[in-house]
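Q: what sequence does this backbone want?
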């Protein structure tokens, strides 16, 4: 059973909506505006970095690009998640972040499962991966709960990966 439904360009899970960024929202992030539909501690630093990147390279604003994470119960933007598109040799990487006020509720894992499943259904993708700093054990658990397995590591970083059951069908 799918961990998300696709409604237009939104990915919807039990508790979240993963919604593509609009240009107006990206501009609000870089200008430090405070729309009412953002959690009080959104955006985090990572969201600012992504917003700046997407304003400079708007080709990242695709169906397979970066998305806001919206808490369905409140309607507030509580983080972001996205694919670093296009894939390279059938592999696409993703990154994510949830604001501190909403951590510990399983939101990052729920969003991660949805974006991984969505990515693996995309044309030409058979592998999804993410890198995590080993000093962030909560993020390690997020990736494990999202179905990824550790495939390599160095002194500071681990790489996690999941591969579609039959990549020849992609």
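A:
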């Amino acid at each position: 059973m799918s961990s998300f439904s696709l409604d237009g360009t939104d990915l919807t899970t039990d508790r979240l909506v993963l919604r593509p960024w609009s240009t107006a929202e990206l501009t609000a992030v870089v200008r430090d505006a405070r729309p009412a539909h953002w959690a009080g501690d959104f955006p985090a630093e990572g969201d600012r970095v992504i917003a700046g990147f997407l304003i400079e390279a708007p080709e990242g604003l695709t169906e397979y690009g970066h998305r806001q994470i919206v808490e369905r119960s409140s309607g507030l933007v509580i983080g972001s998640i996205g694919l670093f598109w296009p894939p390279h040799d059938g592999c696409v990487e993703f990154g994510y972040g949830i604001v501190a006020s909403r951590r510990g509720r399983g939101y990052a894992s729920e969003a991660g499962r949805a974006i991984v499943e969505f990515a693996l259904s995309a044309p030409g993708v058979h592998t999804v991966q993410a890198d995590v700093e080993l000093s962030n054990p909560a993020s390690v658990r997020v990736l494990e709960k999202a179905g990824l397995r550790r495939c390599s590591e160095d002194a500071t970083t681990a790489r996690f990966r999941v591969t579609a059951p039959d990549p020849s069908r992609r």
